[in-house]
């Protein structure tokens, strides 16, 4: 599955690296691009910054070629690869059919092509491990969605995301879940616990529970997701704070969250013991 989100981020990163290799400022490149393109308007330092920061929805292939000219990229195969990348980045992903119920669609775009996802959740079950009933209850409880049609769309979109598990090469998925998330599952949602037990039997899925009784831990600040991709794409850390989505890509940021994940994973129960805990919680309900 081609993710336009991933292609967009890759194109932005490569264009930024080309400019930095030449030692050029965004202002200098924008001024030169304006001259070379023959357009009095359309080029500015802010436009280039947005382009390099993946803060755009569509990019003109001609604009990419102008930048390649400035950066002295003359190899035809390389230029063709950039053109292909721009074309794929301009495509729409499956999430576009769900309107704005998935926000910007950036996260699901990255999720759809990740080779490995590691997530820590402190208060809820991760989206890819949710049942429709649990997802509906969770979205309803937010108080932000009251329209029944929109609620149904949001649940459908969340369920559709699980197609990552049925790809030709399913991703490796590992979740560390705080026990508090299990304690918030009510008897009418017991099917969520059954689903966790079912998913935990898959060879590419690992579920560990972090016992509440172990007290403070390294990830007390909240949930985060580590996404890894096949080369040449770099890992991304995803953070969510209310309605804000944060993506971290610097090497030191990735390293920090990888170490953080290692800590919470070490503190969590083993997969086998986690399964026993889920079964005990299931029996208690």
UniProtKB/TrEMBL annotation:
It comes from the Bacteria. Residues 106-280 form the DUF5753 domain. This is Helix-turn-helix transcriptional regulator. InterPro entries: DUF5753 (IPR043917).
């Amino acid at each position: 599955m081609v993710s336009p989100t991933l292609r967009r981020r890759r194109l932005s990163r490569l264009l930024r690296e080309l400019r930095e290799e030449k030692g050029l400022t965004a202002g200098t490149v924008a001024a030169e691009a304006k001259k070379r393109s023959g357009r009095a308007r359309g080029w500015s330092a802010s436009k280039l910054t947005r382009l390099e920061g993946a803060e755009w929805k569509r990019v003109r292939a001609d604009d990419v070629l102008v930048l390649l000219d400035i950066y002295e990229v003359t190899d035809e195969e390389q230029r063709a690869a950039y053109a292909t990348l721009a074309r794929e980045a301009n495509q729409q992903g499956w999430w576009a059919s769900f309107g704005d119920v998935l926000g910007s669609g950036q996260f699901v775009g990255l999720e759809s092509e990740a080779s490995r996802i590691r997530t820590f959740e402190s208060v809820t079950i991760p989206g890819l491990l949710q049942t429709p009933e649990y997802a509906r209850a969770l979205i309803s409880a937010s108080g932000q969605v009251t329209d029944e049609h929109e609620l149904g769309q949001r649940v459908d979109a969340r369920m559709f995301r699980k197609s990552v598990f049925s790809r030709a090469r399913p991703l490796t998925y590992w979740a560390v879940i705080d026990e508090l998330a299990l304690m918030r599952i009510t008897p009418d949602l017991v099917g969520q616990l059954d689903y966790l037990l079912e998913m935990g039997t898959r060879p590419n899925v690992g579920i560990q529970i972090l016992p509440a009784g172990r007290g403070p831990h390294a990830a007390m600040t909240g949930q985060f997701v580590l996404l890894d991709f096949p080369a040449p794409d770099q890992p991304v850390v995803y953070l969510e704070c209310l309605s804000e989505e944060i993506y971290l890509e610097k090497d030191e940021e990735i390293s920090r969250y990888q170490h953080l994940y290692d800590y919470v994973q070490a503190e969590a129960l083993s997969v086998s013991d986690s399964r026993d805990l889920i079964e005990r919680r299931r029996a208690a309900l």
